[in-house]
Amino acid sequence: MISIPHKAKQFLVLLIKLLIVGGAFYFIYNQLANNDKLDWQKFITVFSKNQSVLGIGFILLLSVLNRYFEILKWQNLAKVIHPISLGEATKQVLAALTAGIFTPNGIGEYAGKALYFQKSEAKKVVFLNLICNGIQMILTVLFGTIGLLIIGYWQWVLGIIGISIFVFLFSFFLKKIKVKGYSIEKLFEKINKIPKPIHQKNIVLGMLRYLVFSHQYYFLFLAFGVDLPYITLISTIAVVYFLASSLPTFQFLDFAVKGSVAIYFFGMLGVNEWIVVFITTLMWFLNVVLPVVLGSYYVLNFKTKTTIG
Predict the structure, then answer these.
(1) CB–CB of 81/125 below 8 Å?
(2) Per-residue DSSP letter, 268
(3) pLDDT, tens digit, for every residue of 3-25?
(4) CA 270 to each of CA 72, 145, 228, 276: distance values in angstroms, whole numbers, following the listed order
(5) How many CB atoms lie within 10 A of CB 1?
(6) Do residues 307 and 118 lie in contact, with contact meaning Cβ atoms separated by under 8 Å?
(7) In angstroms, rounded to a whole number, what is the distance separating the alpha carbons of residues 112 and 92?
(8) Cβ contact 104:253 at 8 Å
C-alpha cells in the first residue's frame, strides 16, 4: 500500500474541505442568481407591505426548530453506538448536510457523519442514518397519501396502495435471499435490535419536524396573501412534499424539484406561479442554505484524527 506523507495528507484534506464548501456556495449562488422565475421586484413589494419583525422571527424560529428536531433525532439514534452531546450532534448533522448538498438524494450525508466515528463503526453510522431519514420518508408518504385523499386524487391513492402491497409481498417472499451477505430479514433483525424507546423517540421527533416544516410552508403562503381553507392548503403542501421527495434529486436542486411539483398543484388552486416559486425558494433558503452556511464552519474545522481507530 502506498503511504501518503503527513503534510501531503493534510493538504489533501484541506483541498477536499475547500472543494466541499466552495462547491456548496457555488451551487447556492448559481441557483439564486440565475433563476429567471424569481421576480425580486414583486417579492420586495409584497415584503414591504407585510414586513413584521415578529413574523420574520417566527418563520426563522420554525427553521431553527426544523433543524433542531433533526439534530435531536440523530443524537437519539447515535446512542446505539455511543452517547454524543447536543453540540456534537449539531456539528455532525450540519457538516453532513454541507457535504451532501451536491450529491444525489443527500448520499454525502451518510459519509459525512461516518467521518466523525471510528472506521469500524462506519457501517453502523450509515445504517442509523438510514433509520433517521427512513422515518421521515415514511411520515412524508403517510401524510402525503392522506393529503391526496383529501384533495380528491383517489386514483393516485389506489396506485400507492397497490405499490405498497406489491413491495410488502416482494419483501415477504424474498426476505431470506442474500445479496453480498445482506437480506431483508437481516435488515429487520438489525432494526429490531435497536431499543424500542429509541424508535419511539425517533418517530415522535420525526412527526414534530414534519409538522414544523409543513406549517412553515403554510404560514409563508398566508404571508403572501394566499387565502385558502387550512385543510386544503396543508393537504396540498403534504402532497407536494410527498411527490417531490419521491423523485431522485440533489439537495441544491431541491427547491427546483419541489417548485415544479408545487406549481402544478397550487396552480390548480389558483395560486400565482411567482408566489409558489418564491415560497419554495424561501423554504429551501431557510432550511438548506442557512444550515449549510453554518455547516461549512464545521467542515473547515473537521479534524481527521477523529476517524483514527
Answers:
(1) yes
(2) H
(3) 555 555 555 655 665 666 666 55
(4) 38, 22, 10, 11
(5) 3
(6) yes
(7) 7
(8) no
SS3 298: helix
Contact 42, 61 (CB under 8 A): no
Query: What residue type is assigned to position 8 of the chain?
Result: A
Residue 41 cell numbers, joined? 421586484
Closest residue by Cα to residue 100 from 113, 85, 91: 113
CB 48 within 8 A of CB 92: no
Question: Do the beta carbons of residue 109 and residue 100 sit within 8 Å?
Answer: yes
Domain boundaries, the chain: 13-30+48-307
In whole angstroms, what is the distance from residue 75 CA to residue 45 CA?
42
pLDDT digits (tens, 9 = 90+) for 112-132: 888 889 888 988 999 999 999
Instruction: Please write the tens of the pLDDT for every residue from 199-241.
Output: 999 999 999 999 999 999 999 999 888 989 999 999 999 999 9
